[in-house]
């Protein structure tokens, strides 16, 4: 969409493009109806072409409305609807995502930063699951830092799915499912075509935390020279299947292996012990003498 002073809902001015999400382009926006120095003056605007065969932004907007509560790591939704040929979602403006910050820090975070993130991310996903929702696309790009604080926010609900039926029963196990999400972080069950559940979001979080600790995962780079996406996925699946948690977590505090062993031991419909996982990293944080001082690897960088 060309953005020469485009107005949305007679209120929001479309600014420069920030990036592309799973199913739409993301822009900076300005709310004309709030004062210049108001923290909600800037917003994030997500656009999805209504002429596309697959349209997911409307359902994503409904999820934001359903999920939003203050201090739960879910961005506030300002407006959603239709503008010309586009579905529109407007949410609060956030800061950079973890992948961007990781890159700015030379693909290295100290243990203190990763443990602080781990605690917030586990709380994020615990809340999401408490509302009956699976994320299914856990990756650093989908965790953003608050614009006015260092709180962690979970975004991009285009691939989310309810795991509870209307009668509050768990969805049934199923096979022959297409792989969803980002292959680098997807669970073994996802590779094997199984229906995903809470354990799979947690397994993906484990891969992400190990990535943030080590700077890479063993299967990164596999399949770059293959001719098909299917062959690339097969090679990554093979590597994930064959590597042990000991190898995967080599050189890391034992809590990372304990985390991975636990989430991989969960049954399909089993409710995870989120507090157990949270406390693994909290206790390690305290044993190292760290303080919750709001100082991270990126704090020393020029204001982002």
Automatic annotation (TrEMBL):
The keyword NADP does not apply. Its EC number is 2.7.11.1. Keywords: ATP-binding, Nucleotide-binding. InterPro entries: CK1_Ser-Thr_kinase (IPR050235), Kinase-like_dom_sf (IPR011009), Prot_kinase_dom (IPR000719), Protein_kinase_ATP_BS (IPR017441), Ser/Thr_kinase_AS (IPR008271). Gene3D superfamilies: Transferase(Phosphotransferase) domain 1. Residues 12-285 form the Protein kinase domain. GO terms for molecular function: ATP binding; protein serine/threonine kinase activity. Pfam families: Pkinase. This is non-specific serine/threonine protein kinase. It comes from viral metagenome.
